[in-house]
Amino acid sequence: MPLWLRWLIGLHRSSVIVVFLLAIAMLIAYSSTVYTQHLWSRDYHKLKGLQRQEREMIAARENMRNYIARQAERPGAGLINKTSASTIFLQPAPRRRAQPVKPPVPEAEPQSSKPLGY
Amino acid sequence: MGSRSRPLHSHRSRRLSVAGDRVRRALSISKAAPSPLRLMLVWGALVASAGGLVLNLFRLQVVQAPELQQKARDQQMVYLRPFVPRRQIIDRTGVVLALDRPVYTLFAHPKLFKKSKEEIAAKLAPILNWPVDTLIKKFGEGESGIRIQNSLSENIGDRITSLRIDGLELIQHQQRFYPQQDLTADVVGYVNDDQKGQAGIELSQQNLLERRAKDVRLRRAGDGSFLPDDVPSGFLNMDALQLQLTIDNRLQRAGLNALRQQIKQFNAKRGAVIVMDARDGSLLSLVTAPSYDPNLYYKYPVERFKNWAITDLYEPGSTFKPINVAIALEDGAIKSNSMFYDEGQIIIAGWPIQNYDFSTSGGRGSISVTDIIKFSSNVGMVHIVQQIKPAAYYRWLKRLGMGELTGIDLPSESPGQFKDRDTFINSSVERATAAFGQGFSLTPIQLAQLHSALANGGKIVTPHVIRGLFDADGQLYWQPNLPAPRTIFSRANTQAVLSMMETVVTDGTGKSAQIPGYRIGGKTGTAQKANPNGGYLENAKITSFVGIFPLNSPRYVVVAVVDEPQGGDAFGSTVAAPIVKAVIETLIVLEKVAPSSKVTSPSPSSSPELETEETP
Q1: Domain-located, residue B413
Q2: Terminal CA-to-CA distance of chain A, rounded, Å?
Q3: In b/e form, how buried is each residue of B214-244, taking b as 16+ CB within 10 angstroms?
Q4: Which of B151, B175, B199 is the last residue of a domain?
């Protein structure tokens, strides 16, 4: 078999392998693109849902706050406003004298039985 | 013929017969062999169909291409208008005062209905909470574009969508929601249907609150999910900044309640309460009554939408006296221990000027500056102001900003009215009336600003309600740039005036603002209302009270103004002072202000004990 033919056959075989690998890579790349898009889309919806929940919760909380405050203002509610008379003010404790701290006595180095050098 | 040929080839008959079979077989095959015509036919058919395909391809790809591409785009592409809310407004404690939410308007197009109107109405009625008959009648109003209902919530929108009825259309738009209703309407304001601010912060801070986002074109997959390949960068990165105010909703509520109670009791026209932090001019509370619910603004008369504490002028009356005393002290015209002779009534340039209690108390004789403030003596004030040179007095008042704007960050502020220089200097009666706060006018907010100069040691600060833009973690992102405070009075002189104002509350006209254990400075004011046609109205007065608190380290200025209270006992001391007291009571609890002296008994007799408390 002439050399050039052998060489061509070799090229053919190797290119088949390369094409096969490229086809697999292409499939992986394509499917991951589609998959990430799918993921993005799903998470976008999730984000929208959470944002909506946040909005609704804020609105509900503030509505409730206003409602309770209005209920409390009603004459028969049995609630009164906090005033200075109904507040206990605690006197701050008198400042304690600073305890003089003894200067730390340097601990005696334990006598090492190890020799300082060899 | 066959019988004749057989003997000719008899010696090879077997082979021939075999060969003949082959030939015969070959002949039978050659009968189906292509004739040129058939070949041409088949070829022609193939070429024609291929040509047809090419033509069709040409038609699809070239002739109809734009139209088909458009159709595909219409199906796959969606214009996504992301919900971009206006920024939230929160108070100083983080309570949300205004937020945006998406709402839907439901339209019906009966010509697109695939089911009967009765059937659709029966399904829709329970969701909308409408009677079925009304809904059917509504469907009968036209062929398409019938507006069924506005402001449907997201939940109801979802339920209508899930019915999957042809001919119903939900249009989404934004709606501003004010959960605290009328509590902060005077500060926050409202937006109209086009999301444009019409009053308050919503109007003056439009550019801070508004957020713009471009419409985004997205491709959509077969299952309706979005494909992100065309999404511009930063599409999801919406800042979470909120506009924080210096207003405290709890104080606001306390002020509004106290104000409403007094307005009802004295059958007054309107009222306002201002609480200002004198150190920086931030407003902790700003309420007017009657107010409005910004969620239903269209139900209220137009004049409610202005905040009259900022837009309307009035003559401050006696509440201006401490300012005049501070001017006289700062000018060096008087000393805090100077004595003046109070005749009870004097004539200036032909005009009689008398004390409010002249008919009962007469002249008080020689009295101190403190007593002039304590008893709110008009004649005494005229004598004090007479000690100041006219040109200097005018200059002082102009330095205080009379006739000018305070620069508050709310819309439609009115500048005060003040006489021009020549009139003021050449007319002794102008100066005499200015001594007790008449003959010129200012807004309640400006009065609070002037008194905060007394409270903070002499600095004119800019009143404001905006604290800044904060992100979700409470980090400051932007802060308003306020002009630097201008120092007008010295600390010693403002201290002297504050001690005089304290006597007003301990044993003067402001006793009804006393709170046991606390040192409060105050000044009452009861002024006749100026007649638009000149002179003063007989039965119309405007009562006010200014409180400064706590006097140990003065910080808060509380102003209450009640317009046109009715009845013989309607004075600043009876109408406005109790409001200030109620607000200070709340302020004590909210700001955790400890009493300056032990509360022995809740009687006014504890006041001398308070006086001994020295200010730091």
Answers
A1: yes
A2: 78
A3: eeeebeeeeeebbbbeebeeebeeeeebbbb
A4: B175
β-pairing, B466-470 vs B242-245, is antiparallel
Q: Which of B369, B339, B345 is nearest to B357 (CA)?
A: B345
Distance from CA of B465 to the nearest CA of A (A): 21
Which of these three, B175, B205, B229, is where a domain ends? B175
A85 touches chain B (CB under 8 A): yes
Rounded to a whole number, what is the distance in Å from the CA of B235 to chain A's nearest CA? Answer: 11
Which of A66, A88, A90 to mutate: most B Cβ within 10 Å? A66
Whether residue B477 contacts residue B466, with contact meaning beta carbons closer than 8 Å, is answered with no
Beta carbons of B326 and B319 less than 8 angstroms apart = no
Longest Cα separation, chain A:
113
Identity of the residue in A41, A51, A89 whose CB atom sits nearest the CB atom of B228 = A41
- What's the CA gap between A1 and B582, in Å, rounded? 112
* Domain match, B337 and B463 both: yes
CB B278 within 8 A of CB B448: no
Cβ(B243)–Cβ(B209) under 8 Å?
A: yes
The reply to whether B343 falls in a domain is yes
The residue of chain A with its CA nearest to that of B592 is: A89
Instruction: Please give the Cα distance from B599 to B63 (Å, whole number).
Output: 96
ipTM above 0.85, yes or no: no
Distance of CA B145 to the CA centre of its chain: 34
Which residues contact residue B377 at a Cβ distance below 8 angstroms, ignoring those fewer than 6 apart?
B342, B355, B364, B367, B371
Range of B127's domain? Answer: 98-175
Domain locations along chain A: 3-75
- Spatial neighbors of B295 by CB under 8 A, at least 6 apart, are B177, B178, B181
How near does any CA of chain A get to the CA of B505, in Å? 17
Bridge partner residues of B348 (DSSP) = B351
**Residues B274-299: tens digit of each pLDDT:** 999 999 999 999 999 899 999 999 99
Per-residue pLDDT at B418 exceeds 70: yes
Helix ranges (H only) for B387-458 are 390-399, 421-426, 428-435, 444-455
Per-residue pLDDT at B612: 35
The residue among B316, B318, B317, B250 whose CA lies nearest residue B287 is B250
Q: Contact B117/B124 with Cβ under 8 angstroms? A: no
Q: Looking at the structure, tell me whether residues B496 and B377 fall in a common domain.
A: yes
> How do residues B498-548 score in pLDDT, each as one tens digit?
999 999 999 888 899 999 889 999 999 988 887 777 777 777 889 999 999
Classified as helix, coil or strand, B540 is strand
Burial environment of residue B90 by CB neighbours within 10 A (0 to 12, 13 to 18, 19 or more): buried
Q: CA-to-CA distance for B340 and B333, rounded, in angstroms?
A: 13
- Please answer whether residues B344 and B363 qualify as being in contact, where contact means their C-beta atoms are separated by less than 8 angstroms: yes
Q: Is the pLDDT of residue B423 over 80?
A: yes
pTM summary value: 0.80
Q: Which two structure tokens, joined as six digits, stand for B266? A: 């004295």
- Whether the CB of A63 is below 8 Å from some CB of chain B: the reply is yes
Going by C-alpha positions, the residue among B412, B364, B362 that lies closest to residue B189 is B412
| Residues of chain A positioned with their CB less than 8 A from the CB of B94 | none
Residues 235-264 of B with CB under 8 A from A: 236, 253-254, 257
Q: Higher-confidence residue: B217 or B319? A: B319
pLDDT tens digits for B147-206?
888 888 888 988 998 888 888 888 888 889 999 989 999 999 999 888 889 999 999 988
Same domain for B266 and B117: no
